[in-house]
Amino acid sequence: MDFIKRNKILGGAVIGLVIINVLLLTFVWLGKNGRNPSRHGNGGGRFLEEQLKLSADQKQQVKSLRDNHFQLVESLRKQSRESRDELHELLKSPNSALKAQELTSKLGQIQSQIEFSTFKHFSDIRSICNEQQKKVFDDTILKILRGQGATEGPKGDRPPPREGPSERRPPPQRGG
């Protein structure tokens, strides 16, 4: 009799866990799709457009600039991933330091291109602004670039803040 009773309890627990898993997976899947409808999150772009109060013509220009910038950066990121994969493959080969140095230099150049492209992108956006919008742009852009402007989702979706320089220092030595 105990055997049958235990199996009923175990079976009920398994069914309960399966139901919980299905609900959790549904929640996670729907939650991600609901928060980020575009392929390359545009929270910063929307935030900037709202802050600058762009005209319809300006919004179209910004969209064109953003699309071009995104295509370029995606291409550069693909090159970076490919170079990084090639670099990691070198771990299997002896005497590969020279090739590794070449690849790390290439990765640095790609990152430099990404940074310059981002600078040029925002410089181009600023150039289509009127004087009042430029003031707002100048006050807002650093927040956006640091990820402090737009909010894509709840704070829990972001990594914790980095430690400041003072938090990385060792404790002071005591005299003695």
Number of strands: 0
- Rg, alpha carbons: 25 Å
Estimate the mean pLDDT confidence: 78
Derived from helix and strand composition plus strand pairing, the structural class reads mainly alpha
* Biggest β-sheet strands, sense, barrel: none
Molecular shape: flat
Individual helix count: 6
Low-pLDDT stretches are 33-40, 150-155
Q: Give the ordered list of helices and strands.
A: HHHHHH
Describe what you observe in this structure.
The protein is an all-alpha fold and 176 residues long. It has a domain at 1-33. The chain has helices at 2-35, 43-52, 56-89, 97-127, 131-145, 165-168. It is flat, with a radius of gyration of 25 Å.
Main attributes of the structure:
176 residues; single chain
A few lines on this structure:
Helices cover 73% and strands 0% of the residues.
List the helices and strands and how they pair.
Blueprint: H1 2-35, H2 43-52, H3 56-89, H4 97-127, H5 131-145, H6 165-168
Helix pairs in contact: 2-5, 3-4
